[in-house]
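Please, structure for the following, as tokens.
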Amino acid sequence: MTDTAASNRILTIPNLVSFVRLLGIPVFWWALLVEDNVALAAWLIFIIGWTDWIDGYLARRLGQVSELGKILDPVADRLMIASAVIGGLIADVLPAWFGWGLIAREILVGAVALNLAARGGGTVEVRFVGKAATFALYGAVPAFYLAAAGAAEWLLWPVAWILGIIGLVLYWYVAFLYIGDSRAKLAALKSSADPEEA
């Protein structure tokens, strides 16, 4: 199979994993808002978030990297984080500073990404520190949920706060790195379009 054919494949094992992760998001909303089961919602966040590496690993290991997979994986991550944060604010299980800090950051980075894409700059590369921030947040959010549900509060409240602060600080730090990356890409795009000005 050629590289082009492989990159356009839809039915792959990694894409199936990403799709299953996406299907878990409405189950999360059902658990939180219909069943009022904060603990189950927390476990769903944990499972969906911490299985993030599986689809990427399988794509590389099986030679099944696809354009659809490159879209599905980050969409699943963003939708889960957004759902967990908005749901946590609605259910009053996340501190307001934490929830609104994440929402503001997502709006900022989303606007930067849309501006870059609209001007033909494509996307910026994911940074390791961004993955580290997401890793910390996927620990903090379910810890806040489980602590609010009354599970091992003595342990989970401190864990949630420590991971939450570290994750949020890193998340904002990488947001400013992405802004710099976006500006550099747009500057390079402009100089290639106007070689006399470069």
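Residues 1-5 have pLDDT under 50 and may be disordered. Residues 109 and 175 are 6 Å apart (CA to CA).
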